[in-house]
């Protein structure tokens, strides 16, 4: 809500609250929802913790806009690959430095565009379907190693036979080598 209030006095910041489900309306501005298809019309994108949809993070990077990402204890599996000041501009944990960072980006347009392009290219590669599937396959394999019981297979389950014509993707993810453990 603080960022929404800031945008009332800052022409470089267009931020508002689309719903006050959990809070009473305070200093923030209630605005209509911007469709994700319109995100690319903006020079900057904010990626903040809160009650927003985390599924939009990949899309935010794919707009080619400069992403301001809040420092956070929460992470998607691919966040460790993101490099501060190379793929995104980091905001502090409470996003209190947002005005300073936006001003920097406006004064350093070429560097800001370079960072935005890097974030776009990196996430385009990281989030290819085969890399996403590989990550989940490895996560399920690690999870299954932690199980200390044999799963119960009910008679009501329906076996899905694999089509022999379909080749199995042999997951050999180079991406996962330097990631921290998530499980």
From TrEMBL:
One cellular-component annotation, GO: endomembrane system
InterPro entries from the UniProt entry: CAP10, O-Glucosyltr/Glycosyltrsf_90
GO molecular function: glucosyltransferase activity
The entry's keywords: Transferase
Domain Glycosyl transferase CAP10 residues, every copy: 1-150
The keyword Transferase appears for this protein: yes
Transmembrane as UniProt keyword: no
Family: Belongs to the glycosyltransferase 90 family.
Name the UniProt record assigns to this protein: Glycosyl transferase CAP10 domain-containing protein
Organism: Oikopleura dioica
Upper classification of the organism: Eukaryota, Metazoa, Chordata, Tunicata, Appendicularia
């Amino acid at each position: 809500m603080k960022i929404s209030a800031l945008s009332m006095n800052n022409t470089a910041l267009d931020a508002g609250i689309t719903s006050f489900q959990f809070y009473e309306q305070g200093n923030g501005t209630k605005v209509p929802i911007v469709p994700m298809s319109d995100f690319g019309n903006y020079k900057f994108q904010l990626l903040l913790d809160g009650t927003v949809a985390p599924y939009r993070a990949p899309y935010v990077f794919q707009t080619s806009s400069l992403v301001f990402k809040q420092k956070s204890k929460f992470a998607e599996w691919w966040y460790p690959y993101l490099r501060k000041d190379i793929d995104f501009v980091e905001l502090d944990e409470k996003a209190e430095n947002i005005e300073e960072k936006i001003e920097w980006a406006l004064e350093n347009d070429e560097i800001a565009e370079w960072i935005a392009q890097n974030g776009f290219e990196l996430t385009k590669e990281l989030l290819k379907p085969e890399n996403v599937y590989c990550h989940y396959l490895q996560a399920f394999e690690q999870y299954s190693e932690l199980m200390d019981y044999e799963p119960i297979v009910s008679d009501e389950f329906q076996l899905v036979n694999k089509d022999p014509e379909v080749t199995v993707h042999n997951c050999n993810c180079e991406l996962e080598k330097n990631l921290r453990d998530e499980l």
